[in-house]
Amino acid sequence: MTETHATVAPGAPIFPPGRYGRRREPGRRRPLLAALLAAVLVAALGLLTVKLYTQYGDPEYDAQVITYTGITDTEVLVDFRVTVPEGGSATCVLRARSADGAEVGREEVTVTARPGERQVTTRHRLATSARPFIGEVLRCRPAA
After folding, report:
1. What is the CATH code for 62-142?
2. Which helix (H) or strand (E) holds 75?
3. Cα–Cα distance measured from residue 24 to residue 8, given in angstroms and rounded to the nearest whole number
4. How far apart are CA 94 and CA 76, in angstroms?
5. What phi, psi does 35 have (nearest 5°)?
6. Alpha-carbon distance 32 to 54, whole Å?
7. Which residues neighbour 2 within 8 Å (Cβ) at sequence distance 6 or greater?
8. Which residue among 36, 98, 118, 126 has its CA within the 20 to 30 Å range from the CA of 25?
9. Residue 84: HSE in the Cβ half-sphere, 13 Å Cα cutoff
10. What is the pLDDT along the chain (144 residues), one digit of tens a residue?
């Protein structure tokens, strides 16, 4: 035989008194505290990101391909411009790819800006193992 009470919602379980201990009252929620903790976490991660980027990032070394010409079965001429710190040097990685996307040539090139200048424009003849379709600059970093 089941026991029914007028104060119990339909479908809610009925527990015998004293058998399972004291029932807890629903806890008070604190959405403001959770939002504040989330905001502090986001701010801390943002500060850490900015610190690491300024410490390890290379925003001053930027390369742009001007043109690639002189394509033959064994080489490509790559004209490119590099922005470096004033009077600084950079080591850039150049790559040539064939029409199917395979890498057919790669070389590291060091460029140096004249004193007082921040940009270096240069032309490099990149040797390839097959006919290239494109010549590109992958990245530039401070010269070692």
Report:
1. 2.60.40.3230
2. strand 75-83
3. 16
4. 11
5. -65, -40
6. 33
7. 14
8. 36
9. 26
10. 555 556 666 777 777 776 766 666 666 777 888 899 999 999 999 999 988 887 777 667 889 999 999 999 999 999 999 998 888 899 999 999 999 999 999 999 999 989 888 889 999 999 999 999 999 999 998 887
* Beta-sheet strand order (sheet of 62-69): 62-69, 75-83, 119-127
Instruction: Report which secondary-structure segment, H or E, holds 140.
Output: strand 134-142
Give me 82's structure tokens: 């590099």
Secondary structure (3-state) at 119: strand
Structure-block tokens of residue 46: 């943002």
Question: Tokens 């900015």, residue?
Answer: 50
- How many residues would you count in the chain? 144
